[in-house]
């Protein structure tokens, strides 16, 4: 009880400090909120909103259930989660933060998975979308489309690594193995029978849900932009940088890197923007941005916390895994940068011909990334299915 009241008291003090800071520095706060709004309106919104709406339509049509049924063997063997985890994983990759967490929370509340299974899945299915990494980050902010492949591969490898590690979480509680691949066409038809909405109603709901989600993302970007500015104008950032400078760490410049790190820890998009504008080596910039995308920032994690608050999913475990995912993404980007001579990472990479943030380029890039990943996952899942089928056939013959 004391711990609960102490937490409420600390939270109240923090938000009182923010409110008083806004009153004391109204001009700076207004400019920060305007910067966050412009960032959301000009980069994040056009990059994500059309895709949010299209994904909602695909869900209603049963296309994602069709895809999820194909990946069931892979999810069961690799991550020790039920077949529904395939749907959450594909949706998380397709839509980005925080769609995966929302789906898993829905699965848990409808008792379609256990608490342990939900905990495993949420560490795997909390990822950024390729549209954000390619369109908003590589093309829109960095102006370096050739970095898209490196950032994408590092990010999804880190998520898969965390998901694989979590398969051993409470390993005594094993998920029901589903080595057989259900008929995807039957899954699609069954979903459409369950979802009896007309096409017009489906499109209307998709637009409404997509707009609500993009507004939620925009609200977090703006509020964390203001918080980031408050930390700067109140001198807290200077104090932290000065403390870092006193620590005898070789090669660490507090005044150069700490403002960027704190901005990225608070809000993902603003942190990437600050990192792009900072004077630092290209490799250090890519590593830092990979960490930011993997961790997601406090803004994204606050969204997830709100989404899962009505479930019994442990947010602290999820938060620790997000920190680990950020670290792994940074490590993977460092190793992948050594492969710079390969066509996929070089100046003539798959994404090097897209130098402007047009909706057409964003859609084409997203289709390429999703198609490659989906085909790769489907091939692995089909291989697992064939191994299981061959084993069963051999047992029958014997």
Write up this protein.
Keywords: Membrane, Transmembrane, Transmembrane helix. This is Sporulation integral membrane protein YlbJ. Residues 44-135 form the Nucleoside transporter/FeoB GTPase Gate domain. The protein is mostly helical and 398 residues long. It has one domain (27-390). The protein is 77% helix and 0% strand. The chain has helices spanning 2-24, 26-61, 63-70, 72-79, 84-95, 99-109, 115-124, 130-141, 148-166, 184-194, 199-233, 236-246, 254-266, 268-277, 282-295, 297-307, 315-337, 359-397. Helix 7 packs antiparallel against helix 9. Mean pLDDT is 77; it is low at 342-355.
What is the fold's blueprint, element by element?
Elements: H1 2-24, H2 26-61, H3 63-70, H4 72-79, H5 84-95, H6 99-109, H7 115-124, H8 130-141, H9 148-166, H10 184-194, H11 199-233, H12 236-246, H13 254-266, H14 268-277, H15 282-295, H16 297-307, H17 315-337, H18 359-397
Helix pairs in contact: 1-2, 2-8, 2-11, 3-5, 3-10, 4-18, 5-6, 6-7, 7-9, 8-9, 8-18, 9-15, 9-17, 11-13, 12-13, 13-14, 14-15, 15-17
């Amino acid at each position: 009880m004391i711990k609960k009241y102490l937490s409420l008291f600390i939270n109240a003090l923090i938000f009182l400090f923010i409110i008083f800071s806004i009153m004391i520095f109204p001009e700076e706060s207004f400019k920060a909120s305007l910067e966050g709004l412009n960032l959301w309106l000009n980069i994040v919104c056009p990059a994500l909103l059309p895709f949010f709406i299209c994904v909602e339509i695909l869900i209603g049509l049963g296309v994602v259930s069709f895809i999820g049924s194909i990946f069931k063997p892979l999810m069961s063997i690799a991550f020790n989660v039920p077949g529904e985890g395939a749907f959450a994983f594909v949706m998380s990759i397709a839509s980005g933060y925080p769609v995966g967490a929302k789906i898993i929370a829905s699965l848990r509340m409808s008792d379609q998975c256990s608490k342990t299974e939900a905990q495993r899945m949420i560490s795997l299915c909390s990822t950024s979308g390729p549209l954000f990494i390619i369109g908003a980050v590589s093309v829109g902010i960095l102006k370096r489309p050739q970095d898209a492949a490196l950032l994408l591969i590092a990010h999804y490898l880190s998520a898969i690594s965390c998901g694989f590690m979590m398969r051993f979480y409470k390993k005594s509680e094993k998920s029901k193995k589903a080595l057989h691949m259900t008929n995807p066409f039957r899954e699609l038809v069954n979903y459409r029978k369950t979802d009896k909405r007309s096409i017009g109603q489906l499109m209307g709901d998709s637009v409404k849900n997509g707009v609500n989600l993009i507004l939620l993302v925009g609200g977090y970007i703006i509020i964390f932009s203001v918080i980031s500015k408050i930390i700067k104008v109140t001198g807290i950032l200077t104090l932290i940088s000065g403390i870092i400078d006193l620590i005898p760490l070789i090669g660490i410049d507090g005044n150069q890197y700490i403002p960027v790190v704190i901005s990225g820890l608070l809000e993902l998009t603003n942190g990437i923007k600050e990192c792009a504008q900072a004077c630092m080596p290209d490799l250090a910039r890519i590593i830092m941005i990979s960490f930011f995308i993997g961790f997601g920032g406090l803004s994204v994690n606050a969204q997830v916390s709100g989404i899962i608050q009505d479930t019994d999913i442990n947010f602290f475990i999820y938060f620790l895994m997000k920190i680990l995912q950020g670290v792994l993404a940074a490590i993977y980007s460092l190793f992948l940068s050594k492969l710079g001579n390969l066509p996929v990472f070089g100046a003539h990479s798959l994404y090097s011909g897209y130098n402007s943030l047009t909706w057409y380029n964003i859609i084409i890039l997203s289709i390429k990334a999703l198609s490659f990943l989906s085909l790769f996952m489907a091939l692995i899942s089909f291989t697992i299915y064939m191994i299981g089928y061959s084993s069963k056939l051999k047992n029958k013959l014997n």
